Each structure stands twice: as structure tokens, then as C-alpha cells.
């Protein structure tokens, strides 16, 4: 059954808008070429989208061309303002952008252990409001949040997790109340994987695993281009993975004794002390990451080899089950280790597993979670605004 004229128009509009998102400003002629639509149909959709305030003329294509056929059409960037948050146990970072992702303002605030739940939530919400005002955004359309912990696949909400501050869960509801914006939340490791897939180390991979090495340990699994969350939202919780070399076994409420006890930040600080690796305290990164960075710069081979041994144990378990072909080392420690740590881990995996696996260092570093949260916010806003 052929589509009705109104359905056909909606399909054509969405196709044109997606192309303008992906390619940037285009002429009507370029839209005709890329869509395969007729010239009159393209002219109609350009007129329709312009009248709806979704696109506008943003320039001309080349100095030699003049007239209607040279006009470049682009998405109206200030149609909506977005915010992305990276929520950590020690603070919050926020960036506010327009609909196309151009950064208009950004800020961060530390939140110490001494701050009560109410105070921590208020600090974070105030930071978002102040940054939005600085960006000139009267209203935020969509807010994307990256946070540690499990996301309930049924509700999309951050679940109560042991070891995480109560203010993390309260923050989502507070932003929803105060901002009157659409609030989306996702696990930080999953968002880092999304960012690495779009614009980072996994840009050429449909299937890969991102291994997050930071204060805690986690993984994000992307199979055939799709992020996998699992039945309860717990895919990638490898901090709970039972591994050799620890003093016990993890439990349902604590990952002590699991892979976390081998490769988490506290374990790495202890390991560095064992090999005499030192680093001055840094206000810009956690102590474990500073120690790994110092080891890479100082060629502390024994420490790096021991660390690679530990990381490879967890990575090998994931590879044996999923065969992803690629593992990206991310998080503060993965970033600090860079290509040096990645090469050592790959060498060990080559000996441990018959499944060929390339190990890559994150190319987005500490900004991966914010970038992933922004991508989530952009896609959510554009789906709603462009769902014609």
C-alpha cells in the first residue's frame, strides 16, 4: 500500500533533516542529489522546513555561484539549548550547547564527602542553572546525564547502588523539577563508549568493548553497532567479576574481592607503592591516574607490566565470552596509561586468548562521558523536534 501524501512528506522531511545533521549546510541541489528526490519535491520540503523554523539560509555555496540555487540551508542551531552533565562521586561537570552541539558555556564544581545530600543536589542544580544563564539559554530543552551506577532498563532511572552517594539519584529528580526540561540519564561507561564509537578510538568498529579504568571498574559492550544493557541494566559490571589474585569473592552488595580489587584506583595506588612509583598530588586527576602517568613518563616497566597483567585478566574474561575484536581502555587510568599500557595489555591477551583482539587507548580521554551525554541529549532533542 503506497504511503499517503502526508506520510511521504514526513518521511522526506526527516530524511532531509538527518542529512543536514550529518553533513552540515547543503544547497537544494545537494539535497536533491543525496536524497534522490525530484527538484520540485526538494523545493517543497525546503519551503516547508523553513516555514516551520527548523532550517534557514546560512550562506551561499562558493563565490562563483549566485541566486536561489546557491543558497546553503542549515538547521536552526538556537532552536533548542541542551546541557550535558558528567556526575562523579567527587563533583559535577556541565556543558551547555545549541542544537548542533556548539559549546556555549561550561563549568564544574567539586562536591566533597562532607556535603550532605540536600546541599550536594543544590550545588549541582545551581551549577546547571548558572551555566545555562551564561550560555544565554532561557530554557534547556534536554539534559543528558552520565553517572556511575546501574540504569533500570524499564524506567530509565538510576538505580540505588551501594557505594554511590545518595545525591546522584536525587539530582535527576531535582533537575526535572527545577528546569522543566527533558532529563535523560545513562551509565557513564556506556556514554563514553558512545562517544568513542562516534568520534574516538572505536569510530571504525561496530563491535567492541570499552573497559573503564577509574575509581571503579566497568565495561560497556557494543555489539553490531548497538549498546547492550542486559536484562537488569547490568551488562559490563565487571568490577564484580571473580578473578584470581584477590583475597576473597565479591558479594551481591560489594565488589571487593572481584576484578575491582585488582584494577580499581585503590588497588593501583597500593601496587605503585609496592614498586616504588611516586607522583605529586594533582588537582587535575586522581592519584592512581597520576601514578600511572608518572610510570609511563619514567619508564617504570615493572609496575606497568604488573598493571597490564591485572588488566589483561579482566579483559581476557570478557573476550572469551563476547569476542569483540577490539577493547578500548578508557577512564582516568586508561587515559593516563595511553598507548603504552594498551600495547602491554594487547601483548598479554595475544598470549592468553586464541581470539584476535586489538587493544586501543581512548582518544577522547576525560571528556568522553560529557561528549557521550551531549550526543544522547542531542539525539533525544532532535528526535522530538524533528519527529514530523
Helix amount, in percent?
40-55%
The share of residues in extended strands comes to 15-25%
Number of discrete helical segments = 12
CATH superfamily of the largest domain: ATPase, nucleotide binding domain
Q: State the shape.
A: globular
Number of DSSP strand runs: 12
Going across the biggest sheet, name each strand in turn: 5-4-3-6-7
CATH overall fold name of the largest domain: Nucleotidyltransferase, domain 5
Given as residue ranges, the uncertain stretches (5+ residues, pLDDT < 50) are: none
Query: The biggest beta sheet, please?
Result: 5 strands, mixed
Overall radius of gyration? 23 Å
> How many domains in all?
3
Order of helices and strands: HHHEEEEEHEHEHEEEHHHHEHEH
CATH class of the largest domain: Alpha Beta
User: Which secondary-structure class do the elements indicate?
Assistant: alpha/beta
Mean pLDDT: 90
Q: Architecture of the largest domain in CATH?
A: 2-Layer Sandwich
Q: What is the straight-line distance between the termini?
A: 21 Å
